[in-house]
Amino acid sequence: MLIEPFPEIEFIHPIVIELPGFGDLRTSNVYALGNGPITLIDTAPKFPGSFDLVEKQLHEAGFALADIDRIIITHGHIDHFGLAQRIRDAAGHPVECYLHPEDTWRASREYISEGMWSQEALDFIAMVDMPGAGVERMRRRSAFFKHFCDPLDDVSEMVEGDTFSGEGYHLQVIHTPGHTTGSCCLYEARNRVLFSGDHIIRHITPNPFTEIYRSRLRDPGYQSLKAYEDSLKKVEQLDIRYVYSGHGGPIDNLSAIIAGYRQHHAKRKDLIWRLLRDNPRPLYHLIDDIFPGIPESETFLAVSEIFVHLEILVNEGRAELADPGPPALYRTI
User: Fold this and answer.
1) DSSP, residue by residue, 23-75
2) 264 vs 259: CA distance, rounded Å
3) Among 13, 215, 260, 319, which residue has the fewest nearby CB atoms (within 10 Å)?
């Protein structure tokens, strides 16, 4: 079995799409809520065959694409909105699509047509001292990703505290930045279910990606890991029985999962501090010590994780920028 089965809850219908080629995410999970009309939470990426699988599993749950009334996207990554426009076109009637305003640019035609690349990406790469071969891999990978989504230029905005209701469900929007600036969870109080997107995942620690496109952010001082830690505290205040995430199986032990996340980040932060204490160097050159054997395709994720932990070390007064470079050189205090 690819993932653990979801509990049977009336009016909540999980749709599970296998997700090859995306590291260890395992699946892309879509959730259909209601009894017709229905709401979709996320849509999966536009992989070959993924649209047919969504339609097939909807049919098995007793619905057709024409029953979809709205689509709510937890955040602006292609594996969550990639099929949204095709589903809207196939529904045969207007389907409103919701996304937090901090993430609308990620799904825009302008951003996707540029291949998800910019001068800001090049500046970040120079700052961390990524070698030329790594830069070219990152450029090709960014350009490749645009084939897995259709752009969304007419989304409606949803913000903290907004609600969506239908037969058997009432969702509240919880803004949980960290994975992206506009990441949101959706809380269904009746069944005490949190639809977490990529904020909470059972089998991996979610990535609080460093935001390299700083010019697009409303808060120029935004720090991904700090925002993520604050968002975890917000989620802990809710009465949650199950977490249904964007990838992998359901969660029924949220407090243990969050404790594991905090332990992971504390250990990662201390390891980076020790490595810089023993041998100050540009951030790219820490990868082999922190992620031995990591595939070359994942080096940006690695250096992003190093950087967001280093930001916290600077906040705590345990590290400082010794030379802005490029490449930047940090040292411990």
Assistant:
1) TT--EEEEEEEESSSEEEE------TTHHHHHHHHHHHTT--GGGEEEEE-SS
2) 9
3) 215
165: left (phi over 0), alpha (psi -120 to 50) or beta: beta
Per-residue pLDDT of the chain (333 residues; tens, 9 = 90+): 578 999 999 999 999 999 876 668 889 999 999 998 999 999 999 999 999 999 999 999 999 999 999 999 999 999 999 999 999 999 999 999 999 999 999 999 998 987 667 888 889 999 999 998 888 888 888 888 888 999 998 999 999 999 999 999 999 999 999 999 999 999 999 999 999 999 999 999 999 999 988 889 999 899 999 999 999 999 999 999 999 999 999 999 999 999 999 999 999 999 999 999 999 999 999 999 999 998 888 888 999 999 999 999 999 999 999 999 899 999 999
Would you say the pTM of this structure is higher than 0.85? yes
- H helices, E strands: number in the chain: 10, 13
* Token pair in block for residue 51: 């649209």
Residues 218 and 279 in one domain: no
Q: Is residue 2 part of a domain?
A: no
First-last CA distance in the chain: 48
Asked if 92 and 155 sit in the same domain, the reply is: yes
Q: How many domains does the chain have?
A: 2
Give residue 159's domain range.
Answer: 12-115+150-261
Closest by CA to 51, choosing from 17, 27, 97, 13, is 17
Residue 100 in tokens: 């937090």
Q: Report d(CA 30, CA 13) in Å as an integer.
A: 8
5 assigned to some structural domain: no
